[in-house]
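Researcher: Please predict.
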Amino acid sequence: MFTRRAALAGGGAAMLVGCAASHRPLWSADTHAADYPTVRAVEHMAQRIKARTGGRYDIKVYPGGQLGSENDTLEMTMFGGLDLNRVNLAPLNPIVPETIVPALPFVFRDVAHMRAAMDGAPGRRILDAMRPHGLVGLCFYDSGARSVYNTRGPIETPGDMAGLKIRVQNSDLYVAMVEALGANATPMSFGEVYQALVQGVIDGAENNWPSYDTTRHFEAAPHYALTQHVMAPEALVISARRWAMIPKADHAIFRQAAAESVSVMRRLWDATVEASKAKLVSSGVMLSEIPDKSAFQDRMAPVYDRFVTPALRPLVEEIRAVGMGSA
């Protein structure tokens, strides 16, 4: 087993960095399951790179958290003990401030806007900001539009959330966002949510359609409101140390294959979302569409005041301008 301790120990890291000329496989980590869209997308990228370089690069993907948690594998990647990593933006937030911006509530108008922004100049700016921290950003993958679900009743306005105990990730940003909507934010590990819903410890949570489905949270909390408040993507990164060992002539091959893998991931993801939504609506989940989200968006001013520094403000405005005729 490849361990964090071994990867970060001086001798181990030196050994990995020292084998630049070898043909050992490049290791890629993912905490998602083997059939998850991001895993399959990276495998697609690996196949393209291998074919286009005559087999000079063989990328081995280790899904299901085999190489450790996202926090651990991110640290390994930064230090050069791991080559590639598909990582959520949350562990990157304290390291690369720019990654906070795409995680802000309602910074994207819809999924199409998010994809255009992350594929365009704002996304490249965020990926480039990772370089001083030992990472080279290759691309962004979707992580779904998160919405609120609960055990009590429909949510159509922020007033409907008043006093509800809503589970959130252990994130200051998520806590501030839910509390700005009038609910009581309750940080809790993901694995504890189902039982907490059943026992009434919490009234609800927030997540995307597939997560709401596969965790069976819909059984306990059948009211799903399409707030779509956060659409934070995930990132595929490569260690800057490993990148420096790859001939510059091959960099374009890696970047092109990564870009092509995004469409693979999105096709698989969209199919998964539609399948989960159709299944749950037909099984009796009560859906609130919320076509006008302005009342929810208006509550976010204190969140932006707290988390958007003057240095990040131009990036927020650049994202908002995408598709509006000025980006």
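Model: Residues 149 and 224 are 4 Å apart (CA to CA).
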